[in-house]
From TrEMBL:
Residues 1-12 have a biased composition (Polar residues). Residues 1-21 are annotated as: Disordered. This is Ubiquitin-like domain-containing protein. Coiled coil: none annotated. It comes from Rubus argutus (Southern blackberry). Residues 21-98 form the Ubiquitin-like domain. It holds the Pfam family Rad60-SLD.
Length: 104
């Protein structure tokens, strides 16, 4: 009788691997152009912001990113903001000041 050598089961098959959930988000700039990103739900959104600025030759300090009308903080994640596939992020030029000067 020959004994079968033990099988190496150290590598899980595709079904056993944990697939990290991702979400596809659309970033829309003020000129109407759209860029799509596929990002892990637990990834910090600064990665998306930096990638958008790099692709569009923008300085990250000049843009504000908004989701549902609220500014996104760099350390937030899609999970924290309850983002779903297809949600839209607005990339707006950051404006400082803007008060009117009254004539006398």
């Amino acid at each position: 009788m020959s004994a079968n050598p033990p099988q190496d089961n150290s590598q899980p098959d595709a079904k056993e691997r944990k697939i990290k959930p991702t979400v596809t988000l659309k970033v829309k700039s003020q000129d109407g152009s759209q860029t799509y990103f596929n990002i892990r739900k637990t990834a910090r959104l600064y990665k998306l912001m930096d990638a958008f600025c790099t692709r569009n030759s923008q300085d990250p300090k000049t843009l504000a990113f908004l989701f549902d009308g609220r500014r996104i903080k760099q350390e937030q994640t899609p999970d924290e903001l309850e983002m779903e596939d297809g949600d839209e992020i607005d990339a707006m030029l950051h404006q400082t000041g803007g008060s009117m000067v009254a004539k006398t």
